[in-house]
Specification:
It is globular and about 40 Å long. 0% of the residues lie in helices and 55% in strands. With 113 residues, the chain is mainly beta. Strands 2, 4, 5, 6, 9, 10 and 11 form a seven-stranded mixed β-sheet that branches. The termini are far apart.
């Protein structure tokens, strides 16, 4: 399993932007990488996925506002978030899948209305 550390969360006003980063302890070649989030009292929600050949797909709730990307050389995955809304407030988690799932500890994103 790879160890993942998310960063870049914080407090932002509605309509603003943030970029989250997910740094892996080792190579991410061969891993499908994804971002999820979990708001208080809600289940963890899939947001975006990027495959080994950089094919991406998104949840409808973030399509057109969020962009996932990867830098294999740096072992890092990014989530560029724009036009943020109060309902985007959650803890954001990075996920890596290669036979098994690996998760980071999460980073808090709070969007003030």
């Amino acid at each position: 399993q790879v160890q993942l550390v998310e960063s870049g969360g914080g407090l932002v006003q509605s309509g603003g932007s943030l970029r989250l980063s997910c740094a892996a302890s080792g190579t991410i070649y061969g891993y499908v990488m994804a971002w999820y989030r979990q708001a208080p009292g809600k289940q963890r929600e899939f947001l975006a996925r990027i495959t080994t050949d950089s094919h991406t797909d998104y949840a409808d709730s973030v399509k057109g506002r969020f962009t996932i990307s990867r830098d294999n050389a740096k072992g890092t995955v990014y989530l560029q978030m724009g036009r943020l809304k109060a309902e985007d407030t959650a803890v954001y988690y990075c996920n890596a899948f290669y036979d098994v799932d690996s998760w980071g500890q999460g980073t808090q994103v709070t969007v003030s209305s």
